[in-house]
Design goal:
The structure holds two protein chains of two kinds. Chain A contains ten helices and ten strands. In chain A, helix 9 crosses helix 10. By secondary structure, chain B is mainly alpha-helical. Classes of the chains: A alpha/beta, B mainly alpha.
Chain lengths: 260, 395
């Protein structure tokens, strides 16, 4: 289970970033007092436009960065006080995570297994499961530098899951993937959920959220603007699909901001 | 903890050995380059000397007294080609000297020998300082003039001994091995330093800044391994790689010695090279200490840089400074013990002293202690950088 309780994160912007954002403010509040809970056996989706704060929230959960305030626990462990324990319980998958081009799939899988403190036997059994699942056996001894981007993505997923984590976080799971690999990934996420794992994804694609997520948190300008199951959100916004619901919530959020 | 550091160290070493081009550049290239440079330069210096010896000086003279030619023949036999010309041809001959066709022009005053008993007649020597043969021929002509002068003086004073007044015996108390050591310690510490830094630089930029650039470091940071262990594992692997690279340089020097004697000052026998196992051990210890400093500098810069290009930009001026420091030890003698406490500079001085058989354990320990303090501070800063969100931008 993941419990995110009133976390905030502010970044200092470089001059270049200030120019890109068209702001004179040196600081940007990426995540503002965000709280949500993701339970075992469900896929929780953080849905929002680019720059809304989805990735920042996921990076805080996975201990890559520290929130300025608030508390996050992953399977009962605090991300700041017990960050190593948290990392042994979760995995973060993102298209930004690359595999070293100088090694083979087999070598990298064993290497990361060892960094997770796994015994050789356990690594081998996980290799069998994950390499079969993602069809990596065919290119297990190929250097990643000569692999296609689809192969690399599959390997990256397998490496992240080497330690059989209880919590799986996936930032934009289908970004940059071809239709077949994207389907394989979403099917596997459902399988993990069915095995009782806690799965959190971030996406800006409404159809992905509709098809995949059991519960959705809509994040706009760093704040959770709405939360619930798909049915609850549609009912609340009196719309027929998530696309329309999102724009309704986006409109309300901007109106609220203007009032404030 | 040790297991994690060892796993990372093994991976980094494997990465260097798997990349044939990188392995060649780091382990084979330095030794090979040194061997080639030394052999080529030694050969060139030899050839330069041989050419000067084989060249027959072309000397033109105006108003030449016959005594000059007789003296030249008695000193150099027929090797010196002496031509007689007139005052009208002086400008044309000077032009030929400028072009390198003639080496020396000597213009004697008219009735030169006769005027010696009356006063102080002059002889003007024209040479070209940018032409090697003209310079060496000029020295030979000086030699002939000196013998001629002493002969005339001997006539005046009655005997040749009266001209010499006394004789000087030259004795060198330096041992043969010390002379070899002095010659080798001139250039070798500088070359070892430069190659050590260059070897560490190539790999160091790749294993940290390269991983940041490729986005592969984030995957490692997501494992339960402490960031400090990742940093130490990378540093240790780089230290091993750079030390191996330096040993290759040393091997290159030893292999090239037979071909590069002249470059080390010549005149010594390879059998005079009497470094013992303890000398090599001390050398390796000082080289390892220097490698540690370099690795710490490079790792810190590499951790602070966003990518390899940026790291290269920061490391280039440091490389220049290291070169200047190493070159300064070629000419400067240390003032006192404090010099050995300066990181890197102290290591180079120790290497120089080891090669010259002058090394003291005290100075060696001072350098090692200062290296450990220096490298530890930089390593601490590097570990801090690994924990910094701003520096370790992970996605």
């Amino acid at each position: 289970m993941i419990e995110v309780n009133k976390i905030s994160k502010t970044f200092r912007l470089s001059k270049k970033q200030m120019a890109l954002d068209g702001t004179k403010n040196k600081f940007k509040v990426a995540v503002d007092n965000v709280s949500f809970k993701a339970l075992p056996g469900e896929i929780y989706g953080l849905l929002g436009p680019n720059g809304a704060g989805k990735t920042t929230a996921l990076r805080c959960i996975s201990t890559l960065i520290k929130p300025d305030s608030g508390i996050i626990t992953v399977a009962g462990s605090d991300v700041i006080k017990n960050s190593r324990e948290v990392r042994s319980k979760l995995c973060l998958l993102t298209n930004e995570l690359k595999v070293d081009p100088n090694f083979t799939a087999n070598y990298l899988f064993t290497f990361f297994g060892k960094l997770h403190g796994m015994e050789d036997e356990k690594i081998e059994s996980r290799r069998e499961i994950l390499f079969n699942e993602f069809g990596i056996n065919e290119f297990a001894d190929v250097k990643t530098s000569v692999m296609s981007s689809g192969m690399k993505q599959k390997l990256s997923i397998a490496i992240s899951l080497v330690h059989d984590p209880q919590v799986i976080i996936f930032d934009e799971p289908t970004n940059g993937l071809d239709i077949i690999t994207a389907r394989a990934v979403t099917d596997y996420l459902k399988k993990l959920r069915d095995e009782g794992k806690t799965v959190v994804i971030s996406t800006h694609i409404m159809t992905v959220a509709e098809k995949l997520c059991d519960r959705i948190g809509l994040i706009i300008d760093g704040k959770i603007a709405a939360e619930g199951t798909l049915a609850e959100i549609l009912e609340d916004t009196k719309t027929n699909d998530l696309d329309d619901a999102f724009f309704e919530i986006f409109k309300r959020s901007r109106e609220k901001n203007n009032e404030e | 903890m040790r297991n994690n550091i060892f796993t990372i160290l093994k991976k980094e070493l494997k990465r260097v050995f798997l990349d044939r081009k990188l392995a060649f550049a780091v382990f084979i290239m330095p030794g090979l380059t040194i061997a080639i440079i030394y052999s080529l330069m030694g050969g060139m210096i030899d050839k330069l000397g041989d050419d000067a010896r084989e060249h027959n000086p072309v000397v033109y003279t105006v108003n030449m007294p016959v005594e000059f030619k007789e003296t030249a023949v008695s000193v150099f036999g027929t090797d010196m080609q002496i031509h007689v010309s007139s005052e009208y041809e002086i400008e044309a001959i000077k032009q030929k000297i400028a072009e390198g066709d003639v080496d020396v022009l000597l213009v004697f005053e008219k009735d030169f020998i006769k005027k010696i008993s009356e006063g102080l007649p002059a002889v003007t020597k024209y040479t070209n300082s940018i032409k090697d043969f003209s310079v060496s021929s000029g020295y030979m002509v000086d030699n002939v003039l000196d013998v001629l002068r002493k002969g005339i003086l001997a006539g005046r004073l009655g005997s040749y001994d009266a001209v010499l007044v006394f004789t000087v015996n030259y004795e060198d108390v330096a041992l043969a091995e010390e002379k070899v050591g002095k010659a080798i310690s001139m250039l070798l510490p500088m070359l070892l330093t430069v190659f050590l830094f260059a070897g560490a630089m190539q790999v160091g930029m790749d294993i940290i800044a390269g991983e940041k650039e490729r986005g592969t470091i984030a995957t490692m940071l997501l494992t339960p391994v402490k960031r400090s262990h990742i940093a130490v594992g990378k540093m240790l692997s780089l230290a091993i790689v750079s030390l191996a690279s330096c040993l290759s340089s040393l091997a290159g020097v030893i292999l090239s010695l037979p071909f590069s004697k002249t470059m080390f000052g010549g005149g010594f026998d390879i059998s005079d090279l009497s470094y013992g196992v303890s000398d090599f051990l001390l050398l390796v210890i000082q080289m390892a200490a220097m490698a540690l400093s370099f690795v710490a500098i490079i790792c810190l810069i590499s951790a602070l840089a966003k990518n390899i290009k940026e790291a290269g930009g920061y490391i280039a001026p440091v490389y220049m400074v290291i070169m200047v420091i190493s070159m300064s030890t070629m000419f400067m003698q240390p003032e006192g013990g404090w010099s050995f406490a300066v990181p890197i500079y102290g290591n180079i001085l120790n290497i120089k002293d080891i090669l010259m058989f002058k090394h003291t354990i005290g100075n060696g320990l001072i350098s090692l202690a200062s290296t450990i303090v220096f490298a530890s501070i930089l390593a601490w800063l590097m570990v801090r950088a690994f924990y910094s969100e701003r520096i370790m931008k992970t996605t």
